[in-house]
Amino acid sequence: MIGIIVTVDADHLDTIEAVGAALRSHGMRVDQVHDTIGIISGAVDEDDRAELESVAGVQSVETENTVQIPPPDAYPQ
């Protein structure tokens, strides 16, 4: 599974919970619904990611990026 961030379009902000339910029915594991900012975060199988873009109310689906910083004593710091 890959971590994703779904942005909900302005017309569906008042029904963001329904958008989250639709995403779940398309295979997404919804971890958090941020109704104030219109973001739903979670994870999905990589093969199912593109299908989420067709869910009503979804403006965009982005893959989470992970940054790993080496410990302070690692070379070359």
Automatic annotation (TrEMBL):
Positions of the UniProt region annotated as Disordered: 53-77
UniProt source species: Rhodococcus pseudokoreensis
Highest taxon of the lineage: Bacteria
Protein name: Ketohydroxyglutarate aldolase
